[in-house]
């Protein structure tokens, strides 16, 4: 039998024979000489993924996918791959092409703004948030917790420990509750636990946990601004909440002033406000107060959220640096904050 002469054929033969270390080295040599060789990218990615090296594997898969020909490749996936590679201009072009095909697609529109920096909204549009999370609801908990390493419930438990007793004496709002991941943490503290979310599909998942007294389909700032001024047929006190929690909800808002306004107006005297947010990479005074990142999420400077709280009379009780989640195997840094609305401030801002 004539020996294999083509390096790619040799690498593939070594790969299928199970000599993976040698096959990996051969694929790497091929890519060093010809970085866009798709079979080498795909096969090396498979070897790396099988050995748990997911970060590099995902990069190689993205590099392979963006190679021509592009006919038949969905613009959405091409955009995601370019984003994964840090090629935000190319990602924007793909989102622009996707939006041309589907002019009413809010996901394409929002991510075009995020990657291009053009037409950036003040906050993520309601239709974008609802569409995004309705589509993610079935796999949300697995993806967020098992894949992305999210531990919002643990962060909230640590933030509230020693401040809010587990005596079921508080009226608590889980604003942007999603599938209710924080519900089991908050329920032992709650006389009544309310959840609010824009995604009906996420609310159904939250309902299945059986820990919420009521779940409301609404945008959280609209709910806080328009909560009942008179009697509530479900027996909820309309005078406000003792604790409002926003775990991973503020990443869909730019300037936090409006959110903090309605929270201040919805808290009882001495009420607590617990939240997490994503931080901009550095905070040396030269960065903006907030920015819509290519991920489609908003990140904030510590200067911004601190200033907005203080302007509205909040007293910061605790703030901690946290890792919100992993993205492409890299940590996303944020902050967990617990603030209090003093009695005299609550009296002044209450409707």
Tell me what the structure shows.
- The protein has two domains: 7-122, Serine Threonine Protein Phosphatase 5, Tetratricopeptide repeat (Alpha Horseshoe), CATH 1.25.40; 135-349, Vaccinia Virus protein VP39 (Rossmann fold).
- The chain contains 16 helices and nine strands.
- It has helices spanning 7-16, 20-33, 38-50, 54-65, 75-84, 88-101, 106-116, 126-136, 140-147, 152-160, 183-186, 200-209, 220-225, 257-266, 302-311, 343-349; strands at 170-175, 190-197, 214-217, 241-246, 267-278, 290-292, 298-300, 315-327, 330-340.
- Helix 2 (20-33) packs antiparallel against helix 3 (38-50) and helix 5 packs antiparallel against helix 6 (88-101).
- The mean pLDDT is 92.
Q: What is the compact description of this entry?
A:
This protein has 351 residues and is an alpha/beta fold. It has 16 helices and nine strands. The model has no long low-confidence stretch (mean pLDDT 92).
């Amino acid at each position: 039998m004539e020996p294999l002469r083509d390096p790619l054929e040799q690498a593939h033969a070594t790969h299928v024979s199970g000599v993976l270390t040698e096959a990996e080295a051969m694929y790497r040599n091929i890519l060093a000489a010809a970085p866009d060789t798709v079979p080498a990218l795909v096969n090396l990615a498979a070897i790396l993924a099988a050995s748990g090296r997911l970060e590099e594997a995902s990069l190689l898969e993205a590099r392979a996918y963006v190679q021509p020909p592009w006919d038949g490749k969905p613009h959405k996936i091409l955009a995601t791959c370019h984003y994964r590679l840090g090629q935000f201009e190319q990602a924007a072009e793909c989102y622009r092409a996707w939006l041309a095909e589907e002019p009413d697609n809010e996901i394409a529109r929002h991510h075009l703004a995020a990657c291009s920096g053009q037409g950036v909204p003040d906050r993520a549009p309601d239709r974008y948030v609802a569409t995004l999370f309705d589509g993610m609801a079935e796999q949300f908990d697995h993806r967020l917790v098992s894949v992305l390493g999210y531990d919002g419930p643990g962060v909230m438990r640590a933030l509230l420990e020693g401040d809010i007793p587990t005596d079921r004496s508080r009226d608590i709002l889980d604003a942007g509750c999603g599938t209710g991941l924080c519900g089991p943490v908050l329920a032992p503290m709650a006389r009544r636990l309310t959840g609010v979310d824009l995604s009906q599909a996420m609310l159904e998942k939250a309902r299945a946990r059986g820990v919420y007294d009521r779940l409301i389909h609404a945008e959280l700032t609209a709910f806080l601004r328009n909560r009942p001024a008179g009697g509530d047929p479900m027996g909820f006190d309309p005078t406000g909440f003792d604790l409002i929690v926003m775990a991973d909800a503020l990443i869909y808002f730019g300037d936090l002033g409006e959110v903090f306004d309605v929270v201040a107006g919805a808290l009882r005297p001495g009420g607590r406000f617990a939240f997490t947010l994503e931080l901009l990479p550095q905070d040396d005074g030269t960065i903006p107060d907030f920015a819509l990142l290519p991920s489609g999420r908003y990140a904030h400077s510590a200067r911004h959220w601190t200033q907005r709280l203080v302007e509205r009379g909040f007293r910061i009780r605790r703030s901690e640096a946290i890792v919100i989640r992993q993205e492409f195997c890299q940590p996303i840094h944020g902050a967990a904050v617990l603030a209090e609305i003093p009695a005299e401030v609550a009296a002044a801002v209450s409707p």
